[in-house]
Write a structure and sequence with these properties.
This protein has 204 residues and is α/β, with parallel strands linked by helices. It is built from 6 helices and 7 strands. It has a single domain, classed as Maf protein (Alpha-Beta Complex), CATH 3.90.950.10. Strands 1, 2, 3, 4, 5, 6 and 7 form a 7-stranded mixed β-sheet that branches. Helix 1 (17-25) links the parallel strand 1 and strand 2. InterPro entries: ITPase-like_fam, Maf-like.
Length: 204
C-alpha cells in the first residue's frame, strides 16, 4: 500500500518486527517506543483478558515515560499510541514467550500435526484527548507434521524465543508446515489489520 497523506502521528509501542512490517504494509508512518514492563506480573484468567491487560499496561508505561520527558505537552498534531499483545492457547493453556530453549522445543513439538489458537489484542490511545479504545481477535492455526530437524533449526536461530508460544507463522521454515489458518495471518503475526484500522479511525 502506498504511503497515506497522514495528518496525525503514530507511536508503535512494540519492538516486534512483525508488527512494524504489518503497520508499514497498512501505509502508515510511525515512530517506535518499546514498553519495558514485567509481563509475568500481570495475570488474568482468560487469554482475551490477559492480552488486553498487557496491551493497556504497555500503553501506560510508555505514557509515563513520555510524561517524565514532557513530550506529551509538546505534541503539535494528533498522536496515537498503538500497543498490542499476543498469546497462544494450546489445549486450554495460555502460552507466552518461551522461557527457555527446552520450553520452546516442547511448544513446537506439540503443534506438530495439531493446532493452536492465537489471541491478539490492539489498544489505541489518543495522547492528546486521552481517549482509548481496544479489542482482540483470534485465529486458529493447523499444522502438518513438524520434523525434528526443522525444530532444531528454529531453536538454533533463536528468534522463536522472542515470540508468543514460540509460534512464528511468517518464518520461512514454519510457513510450509502450516496446513490451514482460520482467521487472518496478520492476527497470528501480532497485529490484526482490520482491528487496528478500526481503532485508529475511532481514536481520531
Amino acid at each position: 500500500m502506498p504511503p497515506r497523506n497522514q495528518s496525525f502521528e503514530i507511536i508503535l509501542g512494540s519492538a516486534s518486527m512483525a508488527r512494524r512490517q504489518i503497520l508499514s504494509e497498512m501505509g502508515y508512518d510511525f515512530t517506535i517506543m518499546s514498553a519495558d514492563i514485567d509481563e509475568k506480573s500481570i495475570r488474568k484468567e482468560t487469554p482475551e483478558d490477559l492480552v488486553m491487560a498487557l496491551a493497556e499496561a504497555k500503553a501506560e508505561a510508555i505514557m509515563s515515560r513520555l510524561a517524565i520527558t514532557d513530550n506529551l505537552k509538546e505534541l503539535e498534531r494528533p498522536t496515537l499510541l498503538l500497543t498490542a499483545d499476543t498469546v497462544v492457547v494450546y489445549k486450554g493453556i495460555i502460552r507466552e514467550k518461551p522461557s527457555s530453549r527446552e520450553e520452546a522445543h516442547q511448544f513446537i513439538k506439540d503443534y506438530s500435526g495439531g493446532s493452536a489458537r492465537v489471541v491478539g489484542s490492539v489498544v489505541v490511545t489518543n495522547l492528546v484527548t486521552g481517549s482509548r479504545g481496544g479489542g482482540w481477535e483470534s485465529a486458529e492455526v493447523y499444522f502438518h507434521a513438524i520434523p525434528d530437524d526443522i525444530i532444531d533449526s528454529l531453536l538454533e536461530e533463536g528468534i522463536i524465543l522472542n515470540v508468543a508460544g514460540g509460534l512464528m507463522l511468517e518464518h520461512p521454515l514454519t510457513l510450509p508446515l502450516v496446513d490451514t489458518v482460520i482467521g487472518t495471518c496478520d492476527c497470528v503475526m501480532g497485529l490484526s489489520k482490520t482491528l487496528t484500522e478500526k481503532l485508529i479511525q475511532e481514536a481520531l
